[in-house]
Amino acid sequence: MRSNKINNIDLFTSSANDKFTKHIKTQSKQALEIINNKINWTKLLRPLEETIKKTKQNNSPAGRRTFDLLVIVKCFILQSIYNLSDPRLEEEIADRRSFQIFLGLNSSDSIPDETTICRYRELFATLELDKKLFYEFNKQLTELKLIVGKGTIVDATIKQAHAKPNSNRDNDADFTIKRGKTYYGYKGHIAIDEDSQVIKSVEFTKASIHDSNAFDQLVDYSEQAIFADKAYANKTRRNKLEAIGIFDGILAKGYRNKPLSKSEKKVNKLLSTIRNKVERPFAYMKQVLQYQQCSYYDIGRNRFEFIMCAFVYNIRRLITLST
């Protein structure tokens, strides 16, 4: 039977880890140290543990070995930050001291293998623990006053499916057309705080769902202002914002028999300087996290992947805004 324990007692004791912490200051290790210290892990994970306990699914979906939920969530964070497959994540944990310290593993500990990671991902997707994890972390950001709630910016991005069209491997993905080009996959929807650019809320849908259909799930209508591109413009929504007293920062939309006036174009240009901030999280996911397209063949696990990237982006914002 294969063993996935860290089998080097001389190198991987707590004492050795302490020395490693003191003498080797790599950028990667320092980032993981900051993440470890900035997050209240106990508070973050307690609601997830309670959900798993209530469903009585905490043993069977995760395989024979059971791991502390903290280790699993940190594995997901490492996977998102470094763009690692399940097999590669297992290898990197075995090889990289900084990963082992971040996970709190010593020489006598087993490391989660690729099957365990896969099964826990399925558990998170099925129970929507990814959403719970994201919003529990946002509660900490709110307590730190990093989510102010004065202004909200809404947008969506298309994520190409892992499966090819007509392959019958992904029954959840479907088609959409943007600027005359056809895409097959999903959409990730976000709302960010205008001031901090922290992602406040997330949704994940099939690609065919219009951007504006997720609007009500992304905003709570307690904001002072809401900004979005012209895809979200409609008379009913504008009337609702006006009635509540929320500033309407949705770009004006021209129609075939009613093009935009010069004043409307000018206002759109001014609003776009604010609205464009919402592109930064998507750029971070794509360029830094290398989240180019979906990795799985169903909406649940692909939603998990998108939300974990949003979670990591918010961790990045926490580090940036608090240092």
TrEMBL record:
<dbReference type="InterPro" id="IPR002559">
    <property type="entry name" value="Transposase_11"/>
</dbReference>
<dbReference type="InterPro" id="IPR008490">
    <property type="entry name" value="Transposase_InsH_N"/>
</dbReference>
<dbReference type="GO" id="GO:0003677">
    <property type="term" value="F:DNA binding"/>
</dbReference>
<keyword id="KW-0238">DNA-binding</keyword>
<comment type="similarity">
    <text>Belongs to the transposase 11 family.</text>
</comment>
<dbReference type="Pfam" id="PF01609">
    <property type="entry name" value="DDE_Tnp_1"/>
</dbReference>
<feature type="domain" description="Transposase IS4-like">
    <location>
        <begin position="151"/>
        <end position="315"/>
    </location>
</feature>
<feature type="domain" description="Transposase InsH N-terminal">
    <location>
        <begin position="28"/>
        <end position="122"/>
    </location>
</feature>
<dbReference type="GO" id="GO:0006313">
    <property type="term" value="P:DNA transposition"/>
</dbReference>
<protein>
    <submittedName>
        <fullName>Transposase</fullName>
    </submittedName>
</protein>
<comment type="function">
    <text>Involved in the transposition of the insertion sequence IS5.</text>
</comment>
<dbReference type="Pfam" id="PF05598">
    <property type="entry name" value="DUF772"/>
</dbReference>
<dbReference type="InterPro" id="IPR047959">
    <property type="entry name" value="Transpos_IS5"/>
</dbReference>
<keyword id="KW-0233">DNA recombination</keyword>
<keyword id="KW-0815">Transposition</keyword>
<dbReference type="GO" id="GO:0004803">
    <property type="term" value="F:transposase activity"/>
</dbReference>
